[in-house]
Amino acid sequence: IAGVQGISNELEVPLELVMDYSGQVNLMVDEIQNVSRDIYITDKLTGTSYDVKNEKITLTLEKGVYTDRFVLNFTENAALSVDDEILATSTNIYADNENNNIVVSKDGDVEINKVEMFDILGKKVSVWEIKEQKNTYQLEIKKQIPTGIYIVKMNTNKGETNKKVIIE
């Protein structure tokens, strides 16, 4: 990274990936000068951080341009907080392909504000604003979308959680 004043925990360098094909791509750091810190590539859609200082990573991506999805940074995504653990254990998200729904269930004091669904390129394909709190939601997928893997992002009073679902 040329031209960066200083490397800090807060520094995020946006990466743009242009895929001319659907398939695997390898990402790595070719050369390191004057950097003693760990180096990560973080997928902003899934929240996953990959250590790329000493080894390459292989991602499987669809054809397209990924502008705001990946960043180079110098701290790994933080370990799960108490609220993250509560979300992971007290919520569930899955695709009900027979009824063309995304099913979201929760328990406890989790309040869901909004649910969004993104395709693998990071494009938002559906949004559901949650007005009334209940334990289970059948969220209808109103438009025809292709078969594939999607990311469902749930915004709650305890934070956000993402889950991959398969739409058939």
UniProtKB/TrEMBL annotation:
This is T9SS type A sorting domain-containing protein. Keywords: Signal. It holds the Pfam family Por_Secre_tail. Residues 100-167 form the Secretion system C-terminal sorting domain. InterPro entries: Secre_tail (IPR026444).
